[in-house]
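Let's practice the habit of predicting before peeking. Look at the sequence and jot down your guess about where helices and strands might fall. Then scroll down.
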Amino acid sequence: MPAPSALPDFFNQLRPRIAGELRTDAFYRTLYSTDASLYQVMPYGVLLPKTVDDVQAALELAARYRIPIVPRTAGTSLAGQAVNEALVIDFTSHLNRILEVNAEERWVRVQPGVVLDHLNQYLRPFDLQYGPDPASSNRAALGGIVANNATGSHSIVYGMTADHVLETDVILADGTRTRFGFLNPAELDAKHTRGDFEGSLYRKIRATLENPANISAIREGTPRHWRRCGGYNVERLLGDGNFSYRLPQDTR
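Done guessing? Here is the structure:
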């Protein structure tokens, strides 16, 4: 497909707003045209953000100019998730710090570019580890691990990544920042009343999950085993406790 006509304006607007690097040369684009899969797709450019503000600027302008975005960390994906005709945002160059460890409450806060094995080495003195262990853990980073809901050979013990994520600080498709995590009923109702893009997401999700036909389809169609990393995992939003990686294999 031809590149969007707005691409030059997008790049011109983005460059003065970022502290990191924006690369549009053929060398960098070729480097990021592949991942661990068999696919090769040339991106429009590559952003190496130094700050969260860099990422927010890219998302905000991408929404304005309708430019596709592909967030990327190590590129260990086997199905082409990290390549596309888009602006690739690589978090591993700079946004790769371990920000906080709470050993007493057994949680850690990290940036998306942190490599999993590096995290577990850091946590060892605290007698902690991150459970899901994909085979590429010596190079896979937490951003991609969360995005893919990754697991590993010990999934029967530790489950999926979704079983271990407490909160995520995110930038939505319109460039606004928010935090996803546990909400009590009052907080959830407040989210639905918001007049912004985030509020519209909550309203759409609620409408989808209040439809009896959708509820039935989710309950009947969700495989009853713990290695489920495809789709949107909407069964977790039903809130009725009927789905867990600790359930036995489906006998149907």
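How did you do? The chain is about 30% helix and 15% strand.
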